[in-house]
Amino acid sequence: MQKTEYKQYAEKHTPDSPMGKNLTWAFLVGGAICTVGQLLGDFFRSRGMEQDAVSAAVSISLIFLSILFTGLDLYDGLAKHAGAGTLVPITGFANAVASPAMEFKTEGYILGLGAKMFVVAGPVITYGVVSSILAGVIYYLFLM
Amino acid sequence: MNETKRLGGQTVEFLSRPTILGTGVVVGPKEAEGPLGPDFECVENDPMLGQESWEKAESMLFTKAVTECLKKSALSPSDVNFIVAGDLLNQCTASSFGLRALGVPYLGIYGACSTMAEGLSIGAMLVDGGYASRVICAAGSHFCSAEKQYRFPLEYGGQRPPGAQWTVTGCGAAAVGQGGSVKIAYATTGKIEDMGIKDANNMGAAMAPAFVSTVKAHFEDTGRTPNDYDLIISGDLGAVGREIAAELLDKEGYSFGENYKDCGMMIFDSKKQDTHAGGSGCGCSASVLCGHLLPQMEQKKISRLLFVATGALLSPTTTLQGESIPAIAHAVSLEI
Fold this sequence. Notes:
The complex is a heterodimer of chains A (144) and B (336).
Chain A: H1 3-13, H2 19-46, H3 51-71, H4 75-82, H5 84-87, H6 90-103, H7 109-116, H8 122-143
Helix pairs in contact in A: 2-3, 3-6, 6-7
Chain B: E1 6-7, E2 11-13, E3 19-27, H1 29-33, E4 42-43, H2 54-72, E5 82-86, H3 93-99, E6 106-108, H4 115-128, E7 135-141, H5 143-150, E8 166-167, E9 170-177, E10 182-188, H6 203-222, E11 231-234, H7 238-251, E12 260-262, H8 263-267, H9 270-273, E13 279-280, H10 282-298, E14 304-312, H11 316-320, E15 327-335
């Protein structure tokens, strides 16, 4: 059997991810996390916070909750079912930073925790910064 | 070279028939909950084994399994001429760190998940060649240290694809020498096979061709047929790889039917334990062999066994660089 032929043959034997189940879970859990965010926002507003402060407070609260659940060994269990539902909201980013920080603590606080903290989330930061620069240049050239 | 000991291109026959003197197995809690749980005498319920890191925990698995193996074989470290051991961690530190206090001449080996069969082959060669009276062969892995090295941090929220496998937390050790009941008759050393599979989450498909190639070589070299074996065992092809391997062997004219099993599928109940395609890791075939299969042979429930452990010789770096996965399988023929 040739390599290309084998690849197709192997793919035929490999089960596909259950798309319908994964999408349903992602929709429900992702939606639930966003609803929690909305409820937190409403709560902060009801306590008299300005809109800018509310946005920051909601993000901070969700990040805190995500890291708390990561530390309690609960976030990965939920994410196993929820997939993109826990990955896409800000909670996914917080988990991606907190989990390597926990994992690599054994290699010390500087070269372990400190250096490896962004091993998963690093690309998001790098390409987030790069695209914001590009967006800024486009804005400066065409829209200012 | 002793021509009578070499058969065909890849097989050696051990004319003195070295034997298994005793085994030691230590597994983690998930393995103990699996279908083979009752066969595992030493279970560590704490995956950290009281250590400060996953790596130290994995080393401790080696220390405990080899200590247990010495006890079961009624040997002291000074009776052992070589210890041949390997694991999945970078620079094979789990075995070398775990065995450093033992004071036994050590040969560190790396064959990914095929390590147990590689170790047994070398151990039997050392004994049959007259270079050693007693050799301990050991292989192990730890789910958490393997995840950390090959995949994502443990608490990272990700989804595993259905073809992915679950690294076994466990270590198996076997003492080889003369005087035991289970004999090592042949060893067929595998060639590196690469059929171009690049998906590190589908190692079963990457390793199946290596398994088929070694099994075929074993039968061609020895003149034996599937009927000569009660059981043929693959290391950790998992559900996907086992299905492919069985089909490919069928095409080659070798049919085993129910007599072909896979350690990765035996050690976990993939539905109940959510291990997807099954178990993997050096510790998978090592603990199933030492904890389940060899005792079954001693109880005469199996009289001839072809143990073929399979390994995917990839690293996280080669995967990121887009390389395909070279794989290997080594066969050891055991009989009573």
